[in-house]
Amino acid sequence: MIKTAIAGASGYTGLELVKLISNHPKTSLEAVTSNSYQGKSFTDIFPSMRGFKSLICTPFDANELADKVDVVFLALPHKVSMAFAPKLVDRNIKVVDLSADFRFDDAKAYEAVYQPHTASNLLKESVYGLCELNRDRIKGARIIGNPGCYPTSILLPLVPLLKEKLISPQGLISDSKSGVSGAGRSLSLTTHYCEANEAFGPYKVGNHRHTPEINEVLTKAAGERVSLTFVPHLVPVTRGMVSTIYARTRKGAAEKQIRATLNRWYENEPFVRILPPDKFPNMSHVKGTNCCDIGFHLEPESGRLIIVSAIDNLLKGAAGQAVQNMNIMFEIDEKAGLDWVQTPL
Ligand SMILES: NC(=O)C1=CN([C@@H]2O[C@H](COP(=O)(O)OP(=O)(O)OC[C@H]3O[C@@H](n4cnc5c(N)ncnc54)[C@H](OP(=O)(O)O)[C@@H]3O)[C@@H](O)[C@H]2O)C=CC1
Ligand SMILES: CC(=O)N[C@@H](CCC(=O)OP(=O)(O)O)C(=O)O
């Protein structure tokens, strides 16, 4: 059994991790951390987990965790993770970090968007955990920067098409929609019921912190500078994410080639499903699953490619991908604990 701990278990992605680990055939849950709920039983915070092993929440203590577990999931805010991760890595404990702290290769790129990095020495060895595209490097990694939810939904369809030069790296647009759980469990003005339920619209237009994360990966894939216009929207649903992406095909690229390429990259991938012609995903198709569903349409006259990609922000966009990363790191079946649907419609 792989012994696990979840730091930040009282948050939304923390809860998803507890559910996944509790149903995983090869893992045991040894500790859950929370500051605000320390001393409380996990099932008192989340009554839906009654009947599962209930642990008492403790504050984060790296040495205590390192004595007990093989891997720690950090479901913590940015900045907090970078303070905790080095202590675990020093004790040879594997880390899957759900925050943005270990997603960038370069501290300067991180610092331009977030804040000064206090563990930048780990950026060289941390691996961007986009499972389908970085599997070989994830295998040997001690620390994973689990991708953001918007980047996951945008990168999975675009990376193969850019690598194979089927679309132009210029003028890419992603119009993306997220459920409110994407903002975490803490209350804020934009996410309380009255606001989120009525005020559908874009936010952080032109300055969302995921744009540089996405561009870094796309630029590497294309081998040249990529420009993406990314506009996120908050929609009044609890969970789910859809990105509608517009790209220009490169001269001569036909629908057949696009389809053949995506099929070739993903036909053996259990969690990426390329939909048949004229089929497009919506949030309900992927809710409760670790899947990214991708449909597309090519306007033959304009050469404009319209791609629709859907994920569950809390699963493939966070906790599901984190468990998939752990499965790869420990070289067990990549689907373990993930090949079921949590909340079917
Ligand atoms: N929600 C989503 O869809 C996605 C989230 N992410 C990322 O995953 C991480 C977790 O997100 P999410 O679960 O939504 O966030 P939540 O706000 O729901 O939960 C955050 C957790 O972190 C703990 N925490 C907050 N501040 C501190 C601190 N200073 N020290 C120790 N623990 C702290 C909180 O616990 P307590 O207050 O009890 O200590 C809580 O358990 C974030 O980095 C987020 O950006 C990534 C992809 C998608
Ligand atoms: C709806 C909402 O607020 N979403 C979050 C993204 C959540 C996520 O994927 O990512 P991180 O791990 O990078 O925080 C946002 O726009 O900041």
Automatic annotation (TrEMBL):
GO biological process: L-arginine biosynthetic process
Gene Ontology CC terms: cytoplasm
Domain of life of the native organism: Bacteria
SUPFAM superfamilies listed in its UniProt record: Glyceraldehyde-3-phosphate dehydrogenase-like, C-terminal domain (SSF55347), NAD(P)-binding Rossmann-fold domains (SSF51735)
Catalytic center residues: 149
EC assignment: 1.2.1.38
Domain named Semialdehyde dehydrogenase NAD-binding: residues: 3-141
NCBIfam families: argC
Role, per record: Catalyzes the NADPH-dependent reduction of N-acetyl-5-glutamyl phosphate to yield N-acetyl-L-glutamate 5-semialdehyde.
Protein name, as recorded: N-acetyl-gamma-glutamyl-phosphate reductase
Organism of origin: Desulfobacter latus
